[in-house]
Every structure is written in structure tokens, then in C-alpha cells.
TrEMBL record:
Domain of life according to the entry: Eukaryota
This protein's name: Neurofibromin
Segments of skewed composition (Polar residues): 1047-1057
Keyword field: Phosphoprotein
InterPro entries: Ras_GTPase (IPR039360)
Classification of source organism: Eukaryota, Metazoa, Ecdysozoa, Arthropoda, Hexapoda
């Protein structure tokens, strides 16, 4: 269809894209759809742009009309559409239909303008939409500048003809967001000059927009600016020379008409001076040589109006920086002007030291730094300019660093822990900007970071210059971490941080606690992002001995780990994961402790894995699937590092924390096999393979074998291969999925894509039943799952009245980021709880056998003597009916046979079985022995043999509680639970558990008879018997599986030594 009818296919894809928006339904494969649209837009640009534009219109209209829906859905939908538009425009080719394309661009431009021309962009949502719309407009202007320029030109014409004091300046701000090369800039300037010639001065918003347009040209086309400064391009000089004087006339006219605010145009005036290298050089010489040489030098250029003097202008700016400034407004304007001057100078090659712009910078830079970086008297324009002040100092610090990276006065001020907190923001944001990461403080409850793809000039210094300050940066991180985490208010929404101000410490004492904590949290987010962007910046430990280096690394990494499971700061947690992943790059691990990299690696990295695994086991991380995927990447990085040192990779791995971390990892990967999130299951499966890979690397040439490190090596490899196969098959249906949610009970075939998931589930159960070694994380995973299963079972049985005491009525494996929209029914939550309970049930049934095997083997080794081997028993039916063999089994009652498979000796009658059951346990109600009711205690006390001790067995307890659920009488979900129990017990139980199952059934059925042997016929008893018959039939006569690759559980070995005659 894509080849024969591309238009219809594109429309179909657009419709599917819209259906997946948050205001429509839960999203599943948004990234795949976006990728398809971007690819199609290269060939059907107009069609895709038109569809996305109409989609944007519909979302905006629905957001206005639908008041009952949450605004978040429409906001997120708008963000997705704008992001997709920007990516399509960026990847646009030149061979599109011109007329149709121009019409679509006009429609799109009209929609984008509403996000640019906002009256107040201080709200985070408006600021983020404006930022995205700006990117769309920038990409649009690169290939469709005429359409954008015509809209701007029309508005300039209206402004020139309007005599109102407050004219309509809509669309003028578009100038600030478009791509400007020299030709486009010259065209815009000439258009402005033509429209306003012989008239009043342009309004301030137009002058400010022109200034921003010049900056866009400098930043995105620095080579043209460089050529202008060096006089290499006559075309550039000629084009700007025709605009220079008229623009200066505009400035002078504006200053004459607005004397109180005349300094607001100083930054533009300084830019125009820089754009005229000849005038700039004369001005600098005048400043250097004094008034005596003024007349001689001024003859080199055409004389200007007598009211204008570049020298006087620069002197006024310099005077505004000093203590004798005429007014606060002059000081503020002078600071802004000089920062812009310093910033412009960084776009000139530093090797061209004789350039006049550097001489002008040296004329003002000392006064500028004294004004901006004075902790005793901080620079501030007032409460409403907090972020603007910080951004101004960031521009100044970055510019000063690029001009002279070894000048550290400002760096010392910013790193001093006693300086006002805003200086800490300045140094962190400045270092981020050196990595091309800009911080937008208006987006505090969003992602405030944006990557700016501006050209990186070769003469700009790298951050390696400040690596010797690593200890001070680590101290700042530790201090901020302590303040942010100790005083952070849970679930406090981020808002504009009013405490981010250039106040002294004494002044800041009056701030509220919540304001301080929000500022600490924001600074912490920036510091973690800095570690992510440049990990080595905080790892430099020159001059320290080995143990101090390792201690510093451990402190830094442990601090990041503590943030990963910080529920109140999800944005910081995500950045902390990225930072830890960056620190685990092989080349970064090398510098954790250069003198002992392997030993330090095992110690530090194991602590990371242990801590995160513990939180995952306890379900204390909401976005568990993301953390699991991150954990997989960490393991990949670890193996990459170990492969580099494979000859001695095991050195240092014998310490306790390494072994504990390995056990915890296995527990995590086992437990998340019963998650309702398919991504979590697949991730866990793949991680088993990484554990095997690590073992292979660590074996090396020593006597160690893979089986010694990972006893269940072969099973883990097969589990990992399952993940690879399913992930590959998923790639084929994920583009056009039939279901809108991956969260599913694998055993329930009523969900979409049930066949793939059911097959995966069957294969996992088959492999878990094959596990022979109950070592490392196998038994802890079973026991922790059983604890969760008990909580969930209690909640489901009493639904909807009961909630668990520990507040875990919520589904265990549920991520906050994957919740459905609030308008959807809570019925789905109940379905997920039942699904997860069913998943836990099959996990306990399949893995319970090997856990029981370990317990019985331990008991046999400690207490029971050896006995003859009964492995020669015959087939299932022959053994059940063979009296002679039964007699032999009777002689071994209450004794355990320590073989590879546990075999249970039971008496041939119900009564004797009740007296001599091997699996004796406490008569407490928790075991469920002989009772179908959760709170009823067994009325029969079992007689114990002389050598037999009463022991607690969680596997036995689990089987007893599970059988009671066969008669769960919950009105809403009882039938569902009964169905799951009988099918799972009958079809998926480990054969090692059959003896326990039969003994438990016997104990329960025994209570159906009175003392005279008469049956007590009740609905509950009848229901239990019916379900028991189904279970026994499933065990004795299993249904053949349709998938030949899935092996059926073998029942002969355990049924052969188990008496079921009494049942």
C-alpha cells in the first residue's frame, strides 16, 4: 500500500498518530509513529505538514471546549505535535510542490504564532510551548523564509503607518526566532529602514527584535561574522554599511523621544558599533591615545552627526559600571551592554589578538567582573529579575572563560560555599553551557535543559581547564545534596523559585523553608545534569593517595545512588541514573581510582547494584521498568570494562558486597518475571544473559568455572535467549499494535497479543521448573514473592472492603509513568491486581519445587540416615496400584530420601497418612491444613514420630493457602480467582510439589466426613471436590501442548512414590 497508494498510506499513518495522542488514549508506540512520519515527510512533505497542522488545530479547539478533561493531556499532545513538526521540517528536502507547500506553510505559521505571541510566558507550560514553537519556526524559516518574512514585513508596514501609542506588535516577535544568515539579515534591516524612513523611531519591541536577529546571525553563522571582522568579505561589509547609519539614526531618535529609557537601546548600539570594524578601531584608538589624537584619527572615516560619538558612548557605558554611576538604571544597562560585548568577542578567533574588539573588552572587563561577581554587594535588578540576573552572569562567566580560561577570580567566588546561592547556579549553568546544554529557568517543573546545536568554534577552551577544581565541585554537590534531601517536602510541586536571588547570607535567612528547599532541589538537578554531561569534571583527584581517591569516588557515586530511589524528585532521579550510567563507561571507571581500578570497580559498582536492587525488591521505585532497563545498561558497561581486563577480571570480586550484590540482582530478575509489564519481563530475561557473560569473563584462565560462579548457567542462558526471540518478534507487530497496553496477565488469554505472551509465559515456566540449584537468589526471590502474594491474596479475598495495613493494596509492579488517564475506569486497576496475583501464583508454583528440594536436602543431611535408592520404581500407574511397592514405602514412612529428586513415602490409607505425613507443620491457621476458611484452625493435631520435628515450611504453607482459594466466595472476583488457581495448579505446578498437594487435599477432604464417616454435603465442599477433580485429571492426564518446543511437566517420578488412593 505504501508503494501503490502513498497518499492513502500517509493519511492512515496520520490518523493512527492522532489516535495515540494522550488526549485520545494511552500511548504505546509513539516513537515508531513519529519515525514513520518523519520518513514519509521527505517524500510527501505537504501532506504530512497539512495533517499535523490540522491536528494541532483540533487539539487546541478541544482544549478550549472540553473543560472536564485534564489540561495535561492536551498540553502533552501539543508538545508531541510540535516536536514532530520540528523534526519533519528539519529533515525536509527541497523537491516539494511549491504552491501547495506555500499554502500549508502559511496555515502552519498562523498556528505557531499563537504560541510565540503570548502575553505572559512565565508559566512553565506556556514557556515550554513557546520554546518548542520557536524551534518549529526556526526550522520553518530555513527552507521557507519568504513566507515568514512576508508575514513580518506586513506587520512592520502596519506599525510604520500606525500612530497609536500602543500599536499592535503581533508577529514582530517572530523576528527573534528565525534563522538569519547575512542575506536574510540584510533584507530584514533594509525592510525596516525603508518602512520607517523619515518617520518616527521604530517601537522598542522592533529594536529589541532586530538585536536578537543580529545575535541569531552571529551564533548560527559565526564564519560570516568572523569574515566581517577580518575584512575578508566585501559583500558582507557592503550590505551592512548601507544599513549601519540609518539604524544608528533610529537609535538616536528613540533616545531623544524616550530620555528616561534611552539606555535600554545601549546593547543594540554596541552591536552596531561592533558590526562596523572601521569605526570600532577608531573608537578604540581614541580611547587609548586620548583627546590629542582625536582629530587626526577621525579623518580616516566619514564624519558622523555631531550628536553621536562612539567614544563618548563607550565612556558612558564604562562609567555606568563603576561606583559613580548616575543611576541604577544606567548601571543595569551598562552591565548588559558590556556582557553582550564580551560575548560577541568570543566569536572572533582568540589568536587575532590585535582585533579592536579585544582591546575594547579589556577596557571594561575588570569593572564588569567587579560589578557582577561581588559577594559582598551582589548585583541585582530586583525580585522580578532573579533569573534574568543569573542568565546575565552566566553569559559573562562563559565569555570571560572563553577569553581567558586561566582567570579564576569569578570561579573562586562562584565555588565558595559561603557565597549567595545564585553564584552556585551561575557556575553550574556555565559549565553546562560549555557542553552546549542551556538551562531555561522558566521550565522548572518540566525539563529545563535544551541542547543547542550551535557551531562549536575551535578556539573555545574545553572544561578540562577547570578540572583541578573538582574537589570544590564535589563539595558543592555534597552540600546541596544534604540540604535538598534532608529538608525536601514530599510531593511539593515545583514553581518559580523566589529564593533564587543574589542576596547575602544574612538576607537569605528570612526566606521560608519551602523556598530554600526548592532552590536546593533545582541546584541539585543542575549539578547531577553536569555530572551526566561531563563525568570527569568531578572525578579529578590529583594529588591524593589511592584510598582517598576511592573514598571520593564512592562518596560521589553513593550520593547519586541515593537520588535514584528518591520518590519526591523524579526528575532528579532520572538525571541521577543517566549520570551513573555515564560514570560506568569503561574509560570513566578507569579513573575511579587509577592505582587500583579493578578492586575499586568491584567495591564501588557492587554497592550501586546492591542498593538499587534492594529498592526494586521492596517495590520502592515507581518507574521500575525504566530502572530495570537502566540496570541492564549498567551491567553491559560493567562487562565492557571487565572485558578490557579479562586476564585479571576476578581480582577483588571475592569481597562480601560483590556476592551480596549478585544475590540481590538474581532476586530482582526473578521477581520481575511476574510483573504485569511486558517490558519489565523482557528486560529481566535479558539480564540473566548478562550475568552469564560476566561469569564467562571472570573465569579467565584460573581454575574457576562458569558453573561455580553461576550454577544455573544453562537455564539463565535459555531465559536470556527467550528475551532475544520475543523482542525480535515484537518488532514486527509494534508498528501497528492491536492492543493499547502491554500490561497483561500472561496466563489470561483474553488480552491482545495473547498468543505471543502466553507462549512466552509457558516457556518461562518450563525453564523455571528445570532449575536444579537453589542457590544465590532463587530461594530469596521465592520467599519475597510469597510475602507479596500473601498480601495480595488477603486484599483480593476481601475486596473491596479490605486494604492492607502497610498500604500495599496498590499493585506492586506498577509504574507512575505508565498509569492510564484519570478519566478511565478503575476497573482496569482491579484487573491488573488480579493479573499480577496470577503471575505471582505461577511463579511460586514453578519455582517452589527446587526451593522445597533445598529445604528437604538440608534436613536430610542434618537428621536423616541414608536409605536404599527407590529410583527403579516403575511407571506411574503401576506404582500407584502395586501393593508390594506400597508396603516398601510404608516401611520408610516419615523418612526422606536424599536423591536428585525428592520422593515422598506415604501410607495407603487416609487415616494413616494423616498420622504419619512427612510434611508435618504447625497447626496454626496460617497453614490452612484441614480447613477451607482463612481464620479456622485445624482441629486435628498430628502425631509426630519420635525422630520428627515440627518445622515451618513456607512452600507447604503456600500450597495450603492456595487450595483454600479454590472456594473463594468474593462476589466480584471469586470465580476468576478459582479459575486461575485450578488451572495453574493442575497444569503448571512443579512435580516436586505433588506430594504436598495430595497430602493437603487429603487433609482438607478428611474434614468433609463426620465421626460416623458420613459426608457433610455443602456447596463449599462440593465446589472444592469439583475443582480437585479438575486438578487431578489435569495432573494424571495432561493436555498436549500445541507448541512442540514447550515440554510438558513429567509427572511419573513423583507420582510413582505418592499414594492418592485415599483421595
Amino acid at each position: 500500500m505504501a508503494t501503490q497508494k502513498p497518499g492513502e498510506w500517509a493519511n492512515s499513518l496520520l490518523a493512527r498518530f492522532e489516535d495515540q495522542l494522550p488526549n485520545k488514549s494511552a500511548r504505546m508506540s509513539q516513537d515508531q509513529l513519529v519515525g514513520c512520519l518523519i520518513h514519509i515527510s521527505r517524500y510527501r512533505f505537504s501532506l504530512v505538514i497539512s495533517g499535523l497542522t490540522k491536528m494541532l488545530q483540533r487539539v487546541n479547539n478541544e482544549a478550549v471546549q472540553s473543560r472536564h478533561e485534564p489540561d495535561r493531556c492536551y498540553f502533552e499532545s501539543t508538545v508531541i505535535i510540535l516536536t514532530t513538526l520540528e523534526r519533519c521540517l528539519t529533515n525536509q528536502t527541497k523537491d516539494t510542490a511549491r504552491f501547495e507547500e506555500a499554502m500549508n506553510v502559511k496555515l502552519l505559521l498562523r498556528e505557531i504564532t499563537q504560541f510565540i505571541d503570548v502575553q505572559n510566558d512565565n508559566t512553565p507550560n506556556a514557556a515550554q510551548l513557546k520554546s518548542l514553537a520557536s524551534k518549529v519556526l526556526f526550522a520553518l524559516s530555513q527552507n521557507h523564509f519568504p513566507a515568514v518574512f512576508n508575514r513580518i514585513s506586513a506587520r512592520i508596514q502596519e506599525l510604520a503607518a500606525c500612530s497609536d501609542e500602543n500599536p499592535d506588535c503581533t508577529d514582530i516577535e517572530l523576528i527573534q526566532h528565525i534563522d538569519m544568515d547575512m542575506a536574510k539579515l540584510t533584507k530584514l534591516l533594509q525592510e525596516t529602514i525603508t518602512k520607517f524612513r523619515s518617520k518616527r523611531a521604530p517601537p522598542l519591541i522592533l529594536l529589541n527584535s532586530i538585536e536578537k536577529a543580529i545575535w541569531n546571525w552571529i551564533e548560527y553563522h559565526p564564519q560570516e561574522f568572523q569574515d566581517l571582522q577580518r575584512g575578508l568579505s566585501r559583500d558582507i561589509s557592503t550590505g551592512l554599511s548601507t544599513c549601519w547609519e540609518p539604524l544608528l539614526d533610529f537609535i538616536e531618535t528613540y533616545k531623544a523621544e524616550n530620555k528616561k529609557s534611552k539606555t535600554t537601546v545601549w546593547p543594540l548600539q554596541m552591536l552596531l558599533l561592533i558590526l562596523n570594524p572601521a569605526s570600532l578601531e577608531v573608537t578604540v584608538n581614541e580611547l587609548q591615545q586620548g583627546e590629542k589624537e582625536k582629530e587626526k584619527l577621525s579623518t580616516k572615516i566619514q564624519s558622523r552627526d555631531k550628536d553621536f560619538s562612539a567614544k563618548q558612548f563607550v565612556e558612558s557605558v564604562k562609567r555606568g559600571l563603576g561606583p559613580h554611576s548616575p543611576s541604577k538604571q544606567v548601571t543595569e544597562s551598562a552591565a548588559i551592554t558590556c556582557v553582550k560585548l564580551c560575548k560577541a568577542s568570543t566569536y572572533v578567533n582568540i589568536s587575532d589578538s590585535n582585533n579592536a574588539i579585544f582591546k575594547l573588552v579589556q577596557y571594561v572587563i575588570n569593572d564588569l567582573k567587579s560589578l557582577l561577581f561581588n559577594p559582598v554587594k551582589p548585583f541585582s535588578r530586583g525580585q522580578g529579575y532573579n533569573f534574568a540576573d543569573v542568565e546575565l552572569m552566566i553569559d559573562c562567566w562563559v565569555s570571560c572563560f572563553r577569553i581567558n580560561p586561566h582567570n579564576i577570580e569569578a570561579l573562586k567566588v562562584c565555588l565558595n560555599l559561603n557565597s549567595p546561592q545564585a553564584y552556585h547556579f551561575v557556575i553550574v549553568c556555565s559549565l553546562l553551557r560549555l557542553a552546549h546544554i542551556y538551562v531555561d529557568f522558566r521550565l522548572q517543573n518540566k525539563n529545563p535543559f535544551r541542547i543547542v546545536n550551535q557551531p562549536h568554534l575551535p578556539w573555545w577552551p574545553q572544561t578540562e581547564v577547570v578540572h583541578y577544581r573538582s574537589s570544590e565541585l564535589r563539595a558543592l554537590f555534597t552540600d546541596t545534596l544534604n540540604k535538598a534531601t534532608q529538608g525536601y517536602i514530599a510531593h511539593t510541586p515545583l514553581r518559580m523559585i523566589t529564593s533564587l536571588t543574589l542576596k547575602t547570607k544574612d538576607t537569605q535567612k528570612g526566606l521560608t523553608r519551602s523556598e530554600e528547599v526548592l532552590a536546593h532541589k533545582m541546584l541539585l538537578l543542575l549539578l547531577v545534569r553536569l555530572i551526566h554531561a561531563d563525568p570527569t569534571l568531578l572525578l579529578n583527584t590529583q594529588g591524593k593517595v589511592a584510598h582517598e581517591v576511592q573514598s571520593s569516588t564512592l562518596e560521589l557515586i553513593n550520593g547519586l545512588v541515593s537520588l535514584v530511589h528518591q520518590p519526591s524528585m523524579p526528575d532528579v532521579a532520572q538525571e541521577a541514573m543517566e549520570a551513573l550510567l555515564a560514570l560506568h563507561a569503561a574509560e570513566k571507571i578507569e579513573i575511579w581510582n587509577p592505582e587500583a581500578p579493578i578492586n575499586t570497580f568491584w567495591d564501588v559498582s557492587s554497592q550501586v547494584l546492591f542498593s538499587i536492587s534492594q529498592k526494586l525488591i521492596q517495590h520502592q521505585i515507581a518507574n521500575y521498568t525504566d530502572v530495570l532497563k537502566w540496570l541492564r545498561e549498567i551491567l553491559i558497561c560493567r562487562n565492557t570494562f571487565l572485558q578490557r581486563h579479562k586476564d585479571y577480571a576476578h581480582v577483588g570480586s571475592q569481597i562480601a558486597i560483590c556476592k551480596q550484590a549478585h544475590i540481590k540482582l538474581e532476586v530482582v530478575f526473578f521477581m520481575y518475571l511476574w510483573s504485569v509489564d511486558l517490558d519489565a519481563v523482557l528486560t529481566s530475561l535479558s539480564c540473566f544473559g548478562l550475568l552469564c557473560e560476566e561469569a564467562e569473563i571472570c573465569c579467565g584462565s584460573d581454575e574457576l568455572t562458569v558453573a561455580m560462579l553461576v550454577p544455573n548457567y544453562m537455564i539463565y542462558q535459555e531465559l536470556s535467549q527467550l528475551s532475544a526471540g520475543i523482542e525480535f518478534s515484537t518488532m514486527h507487530f509494534i508498528k501497528f499494535p492491536a492492543a493499547s497496553d502491554f500490561r497483561v496477565c500472561f496466563y489470561d488469554s483474553s488480552h491482545g497479543n495473547a498468543l505471543n505472551r502466553l507462549n512466552l509465559q509457558k516457556r518461562i515456566m518450563q525453564l523455571l521448573r528445570k532449575i536444579e540449584h537453589c542457590v544465590h537468589g532463587v530461594q530469596p526471590a521465592w520467599e519475597e514473592t510469597f510475602r507479596n502474594w500473601e498480601i495480595m491474596s488477603k486484599m483480593l479475598q476481601t475486596y473491596p472492603k479490605c486494604k492492607t495495613d502497610d498500604g500495599q493494596a496498590e499493585i506492586f509492579h506498577r509504574g507512575v509513568g505508565k498509569r492510564r488517564a484519570s478519566h478511565q475506569s478503575s476497573e482496569h486497576d482491579l484487573e491488573e491486581q488480579i493479573s499480577e496475583w496470577a503471575n505471582m501464583t505461577w511463579f511460586l508454583l514453578t519455582l517452589g519445587g527446587v526451593c522445597l528440594l533445598k529445604r528437604r536436602q538440608q534436613t536430610a543431611t542434618a537428621q536423616i540416615p541414608q536409605h536404599p535408592n527407590l529410583s527403579t520404581l516403575g511407571s506411574t500407574q503401576a506404582n500407584i496400584n502395586n501393593y508390594a511397592i506400597q508396603q516398601k514405602i510404608n516401611s520408610l514412612t516419615c523418612q526422606i530420601i536424599p536423591q536428585a529428586h525428592i520422593q515422598v513415602a506415604c501410607q495407603g490409607s487416609i487415616g494413616s497418612l494423616g498420622q504419619t505425613s512427612l510434611y508435618s507443620f504447625s497447626s496454626s491457621s496460617s497453614s490452612g491444613r484441614g480447613s477451607l476458611h482463612p481464620n479456622s484452625a485445624s482441629s486435628t493435631t498430628l502425631a509426630q514420630g519420635p525422630q520428627q520435628e515440627v518445622q515451618y515450611c513456607p512452600v507447604t504453607q503456600f500450597i495450603g493457602q492456595l487450595l483454600r482459594l479454590l472456594v473463594c466466595n468474593n462476589e466480584k472476583i471469586g470465580l476468576n480467582i478459582q479459575k486461575n488457581v485450578k488451572e495453574l495448579v493442575g497444569e503448571e505446578m512443579s512435580t516436586y510439589l505433588y506430594p504436598i498437594l495430595f497430602e493437603q487435599i487429603r487433609a482438607i477432604v478428611e474434614k468433609f466426613f463426620n465421626q460416623q464417616g458420613q459426608v457433610n454435603v455443602t456447596d463449599i465442599n462440593t465446589q472444592f471436590i469439583e475443582h480437585t477433580i479438575y486438578i487431578m485429571k489435569s495432573i494424571l492426564d495432561p493436555k498436549p501442548t500445541k507448541d512442540a518446543s514447550i515440554e510438558q511437566p513429567s509427572t511419573s517420578e513423583n507420582l510413582g512414590v505418592t499414594s492418592i488412593e485415599g483421595i
